[in-house]
Amino acid sequence: MSSKTNGRPKSFQQMILDLQQFWAEWGCAILQPYDVEMGAGTFHPATTLRALGPKTWNAAYVQPSRRPTDSRYGENPNRTQYYYQFQVILKPGPEDCQQLYLESLRMMGIDIENHDIRFVEDDWESPTLGASGLGWEVWCDGMEISQFTYFQQVGGIECEVGSVEITYGLERVAMNVQDVNNFFLLDWNGAEGSRKLTYKDISFQGEKEFSAYNFLHADRSILLQHFVDAEKECGKLLKLNLALPAYDQCIKASHLFNLLDARGVISVMERASYIGRVRSLAKGCCEAWLQCENTRK
Amino acid sequence: MSEFLIEIFSEEIPARMQVQAAEDLKKIVSDELQGRTLTFTSINTYVTPRRLMLLVEGLIESTVATTEERRGPKVGAPENALQGFLKSAGIKLEECIQREGYYYAHIEKKAQETRAVLPEIVKTFFSKMSWQKSMFWALKNGEKSQAWVRPVRSVLTLFNGKEVSFELPTLGITTGNKTYGHRFLAPQAIEVSSFADYQTKLEISFVVLDHQDRQTRIREGLESLARKEGLTLQFDEGLLKEVAGLVEYPVPLLGKIDADFMSLPGPVLSTSMRVHQKYFTLRDKKGNFAPFFGVVANIQASDGNAKMIAGYERVLRARLSDAAFFYKQDIEIPLEELSQKLHSIVFHAKLGSLGQKVERLWTLVNFQNMGQDGKRAATLAKADLHTSMVGEFPELQGVMGEIYALAQGENPQVAAAIREHYQPQGPNDDCPSAPLSVALALADKIDTLVGFFGIGEEPTGSKDPFALRRAALGIIRLIRENNFQDFSLESLCHEASEAYKTQNISFKNEFEITSVLDFINDRLKVALRGDGIRHDCVTAVIEGSKSTPYHYMPWAIAMRAKALQEFLETLDGQALLAAFRRAHGILKEEQKKDGIFYSGGRVARNQLVEGQELNLFDNIEKIISGRDALLKSHQYEELMSQLATLRPVVDAFFDLKVNHEDASIRAHRLELLGKLAAQTALIADFSHIEG
Question: The whole model's pTM is what?
């Protein structure tokens, strides 16, 4: 497939459609974004929970990701507090997974023989999820466009099956494909005239308003209370062995922690303790989920 | 000549681990070969991001047959001991030989063809090799792999031109004679028949096998590109090595930095480029930062690399735009205001906040008479830890503090002290000399050492998570290189400990300041050994200075140790050592017998009778009269020379019988020797001198 349609580079949405097509054809289930705010696609239960246990599992989905500390009021060319990740989980990871990934880049419109694509060491770790893996950041002409990780551990539990997680930073890939220097200049839908939409049309207002919310107006005491509530609810649900609803509360707690962090409420000393609290929720959820899996067997 | 090749072809090995891995491969395989009597003429290894390669040349074709005689248990030993022995030797009882009451086994190892032994050696390498960090992945059969740095995808083993094919089940691989070229430029499989063939084929498949070779190509390539622009490359060896570990086919390129960003401070530009992007910096003819960067691609693009360069420039623009955002944000907040926020950053859970550390620094610079500037520098020293820029680039701590302080109109000495108080960071780092910087650097390091020792976090073995050894070496350099002749660490450490006490930060009960001071003296031994000063001389000086004011004066100790070593190489020095040893030998024995310490204090001139006694007494007294002044002014060699002149007097004294029948004469003579020993002890404890 050519990187250009009608002589123009692929639109943002076309890249997503092509990527979904690619992984669907390979055999992945195409899922939809999870409907709870999260900092990264890894938090989606389709990755965190399904990476555990012995069952084969291949899935791909877009996940909008929120990073309150990356708020820049829409003034930074490639840092925003809300952006899109494309997440692939392959369990077990196939032998040719690197090659598959490179083919998927080609499918998105990157001419891989004419760009400098590099696998640079990155020992990925999510302290809040108690998850870790080894792999790389993938660079395209010096820009990190993806993370490629061999999962080793999730929720503090060693993975039974060697799985591979691929996370694409969609905007960054698109910048390269469309040859623009700013997220906001990205062509979103490939249309012309009054129907033409750019990334700015979709996101700019949100960046401005959410930056103000994240940095200035989010009510600290409400956030703190929400955190405590989510933690409590999670604990209660875990006692009832309701792993999935409990895990929703864990994701919420994690996002609330990120908001508190952006508001500068959390001192360095407290930081570690908050992370530890979320991690223990995640651990509980993973254990509960595995237990259900094993009884279903 | 015979050849044995191994190539482990894997997914990308982290750059920082490659060189060590090549060394480990060489070591393990060469040990395994030698352990099997397989001799060879040479062994070499090569490493790229995707392959770890070994070449053994002149390897013999078969192992040597050996017979080993092994002694077993005594004849008549318990049955299980005998059975154990037979089992381990792999023989039957009737094959054993009995000699001198013992069983002996003759174990014969037949000669084996080398080719047959090689699989075992390769397997041993895979099980013995350990990586800093390793992982598992899924094999084709769904099983977990063995631990390795990254997934291994193919293994080539070749002996004398023919493949040695065998299974490596823990990697799901059958070895063979194939490898692959560059990931993008020549991904197809390559069959290999010899090392020369391997080299040639890789070369045309866009793989530069040798790490050093890649480094040279990168350096020369970048230098030549720089020259064309009238610029010079800012050489960075660490970065060069790293980059050479990120590419198989280095293509050096030059990109431009947007003029908008050239107003950012140089360290911000270079750190952002080096740390995040692995770009090299360039200088113009005047030595200024040039608006260009050097980068190394792993591919030659068909468009003359234009798109790639545009990509590199785009990323840098985004990076620098973030840096500019931080800079703009940071510079508007006075450092003093940030300093007040340091109370919310933990220094260590048991040692309070950074804000508290700053308050202790006030005390310690004040103690060194640094006045108002001292207090100001201490106040601002850690403030940049609260800036966004240092949050992003921790290695810019201090550097940003100085930049922001200057921009905010602080006194330049104060600003410099903010940066320099972290120095020296290591043996190759600059050591500050400006008085304010030195005082603040000493204060910071002493505070850290006393604090961590106070809570029992001293380094153990190879573990030194708080870099206390480096702090101690820093203190030593600050004092020695600034010629602080009379600087004693004792009072400053005491002050530091008091400062913690004032803040109600409690130390463990058994803590004593001497533990910190002795730790610094231990580091001093290491530092001086690096200067070529004998360990025993340093120990002798340190031990000898106990209970004198010089014991914790690093400058004086270092100077004395050096002087002592030089002196011991002279005839005078040998004379002094001999005299000491003789006196010391007698004293040691007699003191033990008597249970009395002959300090030299209990003998008066009028108690002495013999000429030799009087002569020794007078000569010692003469030295004592000038002694303190000499020590105080560090005229150490002079004091040693004076003591050395006592040799004939001491020899004459020994003509007398020290162990006289008359108890009182004996006591006086021993006291006299004690007096002599006490004088030499002021220089050094000679009992530590070796040889």
Answer: 0.79
